[in-house]
Amino acid sequence: MGLGPDADETSAFPALTGLMDPESTFWARPGRETWGDQPMNDLPIACSLTTPELQERRSNLLHRVRGAALESKELEEGFAYRFPPDDALLADLLMLIQLEHQCCPFLGFGLIVEAGKGPVWLELTGPPGTKGFLASTFE
Length: 139
Hints:
By secondary structure, the chain is an alpha+beta fold. The protein contains four helices and six strands, in the order αββαββαββα. Strand 1 (34-35) and strand 2 form a beta hairpin. Helix 2 (52-68) packs across helix 3 (87-103). The protein is globular, with a radius of gyration of 17 Å. It starts with 8 loop residues before the first helix and ends with a helix.
């Protein structure tokens, strides 16, 4: 078991068997079916931000992040957005994940930072109905 030229992800890392999607550069993660004790399908597809300060902060951050997106790809349960490799933008993406995690518990997040000067990908996924929410919020 090594990382030589004949090794693949699953032979080098047996724990990853079944997680790599051969049709994509994205890792396939097992679906999250519950949020605490509540089934994911029972969570409302809605934002719960109530304080004006957080709403304004989120709005400004969304505006910056949307403006920096280079590409979007539709995923089975959401979207992936490609960004340039930029440290300030990476900080904005992390802050956006933190804010969205507070107000939108139905969303799942994946942040992929490619090696070297490769792009940064933000994946946003969730239960049925999430794509429509994301399209109206992030597009």
